[in-house]
Amino acid sequence: MKYFPLMSCLFFVLLFGCNEVSPKGEKEVREFVNQWNEAHTQLKSAYLTRDYMDVIIYYGKKRTRAQVQEDKNSLFQQFPDYTQRILDDQIVITKEAGSYLVTFTKHVSYNGIEADYTSYLSVMYKNGAFKILREGVAENAKDLDAPIFPSARENNAFLSNTRQLFGDFDGDGLSDYATVVSPEINTSIKTNSQNNDVVECVGECKSVIVFSNKNLKPITIKGAYKSQLENLKDLNSDGADEIGFWDIKASTKTLYIFNATNGALLTQPVEINTHVHKNLKLIDVFKKTGPNKITVTRSMEVNGNWILKSEVIVLD
């Protein structure tokens, strides 16, 4: 019986002294969130890795701590002037089972743009420090396609691994780039058609021009599976470069001339019969011939003979 008080004391210590999921208090949570927020600068961002659990839910997707840090680094590489602050220092903290849900309005500034987003963190106290379990913004928040969010940088990571065409496609005086997402060709299926231009795609047979600038909407070209992009410079005096898309097939090449700012065709597609008119270059098919004027040259069949015919197009 003389050991009973000692055992009771030990039980008390084990039960209450080692409970790591019990947060220290709202004051400490607030201090942690403010520290995390202030680390969102180019100079301090390297320290953010200490604030996260090994695996978290990051803007709706499961990510490791290393992946989160890589995304933060990419953010500051793209926008070195990025800063964020908690609007009016207003933080709402709700205690959950073993963690705290922290909600606030995040005011961001980057590249001359300022915006507010309803944001949240879920944090818990573990091994003597607070760690982030979840990070994100409200699902009904506006402008979730802004380039500061992980989804935009995931797309940029894909674009960076494909061939890029650079130009000022939105007329803001800054360089953008475009690339093409092509369909997958089913090489296991052989067609009985004698037309070499016919192929079998996995899924829908189409190509999509996508831009690094998310303000520019993707442009879809149906039936295209092999392509090449051209920067055609500013053709209609709107300050933005136009984009050319070559739809390349076994017996034809077709040039689409797009206004990148709205995806509109500036003229009917320019088709070249490459079996007859071989080795034609862009300058042979397309020329800018005056203010808001272009000359295009097409292959045309006249009386059983293929000829090249040119016409002047006046652009609106």
Automatic annotation (TrEMBL):
InterPro entries the UniProt entry points to: Integrin_alpha_N
Protein's name in the database: DUF4440 domain-containing protein
Lineage: Bacteria, Pseudomonadati, Bacteroidota, Flavobacteriia, Flavobacteriales
